[in-house]
DNA sequence: TGCCACTACCTATAGACATAGGTAGTTTGT
DNA sequence: ACAAACTACCTATGTCTATAGGTAGTGGCA
């Protein structure tokens, strides 16, 4: 159900075509809520059917058309209601920690590879989060810039700081994950003997 | 697919009935991979069908019976293979961070309630993780104790330390989440004005 | 004897999600 | 003139997951 509100969140910055949504999504909202376009297109249709969005068909080239979605008043209301309602708590479901708990079953080499892969994934993810955070701080993030246009300048700081706050949380998590993986690599060396190569 | 291996992990400690699995699960493996019993029973059946488990029917009372599942050799092999194969990377999907990024849409009271609820959930979760960690350190954790029986005493430290390592990772994440929520509450007070009550 | 909590196991249903495709038009560069 | 890359949108399939039930036997106790 969160996908619907993630899409609403994105579309409050400006009306967009489905294609724009699926592209922009991966560069902003997807950092907190990932979804592939095969989930996005049908959801946009359902949201229009439910009156949260309305679409206008825009010509594109000679024969082509595209559909631009805008949030309706009912959409804004639904988004606000969701914002004011308690969050669902997500249950822990992380294969990396599951595996870590049973590392005595793994080959030492595989255990190391595992932890390195995990660390590298989060390191990459962290770099992306920090880069995005920087574009929020200097307000060059395109979606943010479009969003701020609807607001009085006195509100800008407030809006931006909430977004930075969200990214700070994600960055903390990424850092914690990386540090944990590093400790794991040290532990594997200690328990299995350092690799000989 | 991880559920299958989470169940295998649990059942390597000792054979268990489906009911035991679903009870024990929530006190150990569920900390890293949650699943309700409505998912567990069918999965156990499928695992037996696939030759990873074998079951023996045990009488229970006068008329009742229960099914005890034990991991087969094929099950052990599958578990080892999974342990040695690269992990799937989970995509970010956390409603709390999604909401945090759009907190300018929320009522100040709702924003505070949100963050408090998030903090309280993780505080509770942290207490549980720390309590469980302590039972691993002193080896009083029942599933761990049963597991260690299959191993030579020289291996005990190795096994226990991997489990502690996994919990340490979860504890780090919980602490980071709590600290983030606290910072969020301060931020809301700063941006929306402290609550008047 | 009846009731209740618990053990034991299972089903149904709907929605979420991943993965892997497909079609058709447009723009850009050579 | 043509290919390649991109825009635009959609479908199919299978699995996963949440939620909410259901049935039947057991053990204790009042």
TrEMBL record, chains A, B:
<dbReference type="InterPro" id="IPR036388">
    <property type="entry name" value="WH-like_DNA-bd_sf"/>
</dbReference>
<feature type="domain" description="Transcription regulator PadR N-terminal">
    <location>
        <begin position="7"/>
        <end position="80"/>
    </location>
</feature>
<dbReference type="Pfam" id="PF03551">
    <property type="entry name" value="PadR"/>
</dbReference>
<protein>
    <submittedName>
        <fullName>PadR family transcriptional regulator</fullName>
    </submittedName>
</protein>
<dbReference type="InterPro" id="IPR005149">
    <property type="entry name" value="Tscrpt_reg_PadR_N"/>
</dbReference>
<dbReference type="InterPro" id="IPR036390">
    <property type="entry name" value="WH_DNA-bd_sf"/>
</dbReference>
